[in-house]
Amino acid sequence: MTNEMKDKKLLEIKDLKVSFFTPVGEVKAVGGISYDLNYGEVMGIVGESGSGKSVEAYAIMGLLQSPGKVVGGSITFDGEDVLAKTSKEMQDFRGNSVSMIFQNPMTCLNPVYTVGNQLIEAVQCHNKVTKAQAKARAVEMLELVGINNPVRRMDQYPHEFSGGMRQRVMIAMGLICDPKMLIADEPTTALDVTIQAQIIELMKDIQKKTQMAIIFITHNLGVVAEVCDRVSVMYAGKIVEQGDVKDIFYHPHHPYTLGLLRSMPRVDAKEYERLIPIEGTPVDMLNPPVGCPFGPRCEHCMKICLRMEPPRIDLGNGHTSACWLLADEAKKEGTPNE
């Protein structure tokens, strides 16, 4: 891939808002997020469970189901308006342009069909090829993801594969139609630590070979450091900090990002040194707080934080943070208890 292509935008999300309209009220799962993804770039989306990471991915893929609905903003992929596509166009879009790997491979593979049948169907669904050509492509992809004896394995069922092998099959299925972008939604969560490391190495290797763009959704900051070029930190449906991996890890500016980093186990920690948790509980999305969503849990909370939503402050080199601590007009404010 040329440097010119690497600097070209593939995905552009502007002020995306997604809500779930439940009998007890509107849940604003994604509250207006914006970011760009270039060709060949790997973007990490991190945050606690319930922060809106997966919902945002489902919106891109057109997989939101009732009562979920995109209520605002735009999604532009390779110059095309994704939200304006018809159901038939979205079927072509999924697989050919964008693919997604889910958390639990066992729930995504059909237990009554062989792995080979499912891979062949994925090829023929999006390409006008013979069954023999589709089978050859399926075998090629199983080999690419490190599955031994791929021809024999094509005739086996999902239950005959281990968890790590099933996840490799899902990666093969995601890549089989050569999409321009892959969304990986916590692909290592259901696996043990050793297998997690193997899957991460596999995805790094495939990304280098194919140069495809990847959105990597995870709550594991170690994975982000290993795989990603840039990071978006989400909290309560909003992106609170965004930047280069080095900026996020070595120069974090949002208290929530700092909290996530402090809660990570460290190799250089002293014996019996305790992890530092983020105090408080996640936001009730049915009744979100006024002002900064992280304000009620923040040790640096000021009066303005509980009244007004913070602006997004540009820190240079694509690094931004939505925090009143960085705004000059807020530094005169006292804490809520003063």
List the helices and strands and how they pair.
Blueprint: H1 3-6, E1 9-22, E2 25-38, E3 42-46, H2 53-61, E4 68-77, E5 80-81, H3 87-96, E6 98-101, H4 105-108, H5 115-126, H6 131-144, H7 150-153, H8 163-175, E7 181-185, H9 193-210, E8 213-218, H10 221-227, E9 230-235, E10 238-244, H11 245-250, H12 255-262, E11 312-314, E12 320-322
Parallel strand pairs: 3-8, 3-9, 6-7, 7-8
Antiparallel strand pairs: 1-2, 1-4, 4-5, 9-10, 10-12, 11-12
Helix pairs in contact: 5-6, 6-8, 8-9
What are the defining features of this structure?
338 residues, 4-stranded antiparallel beta sheet, 23% strand, 2 domains, alpha/beta, Rossmann fold
Task: Describe the fold and architecture.
This protein has twelve helices and twelve strands. With 338 residues, it is of the alpha/beta class. 39% of the residues are buried. The radius of gyration is 21 Å and the shape is globular. The protein has two domains: 3-97 and 179-330, Rossmann fold, CATH 3.40.50; 107-178, no CATH class. The strands form two sheets. An eight-stranded mixed beta sheet has the order 6-7-8-3-9-10-12-11, sandwiched between helices. Strands 2-1-4-5 form a four-stranded antiparallel beta sheet, covered by helices on one side. α6 (131-144) packs across α8 (163-175) and α8 runs parallel beside α9. It starts with a helix and ends in a 16-residue tail after the last strand.
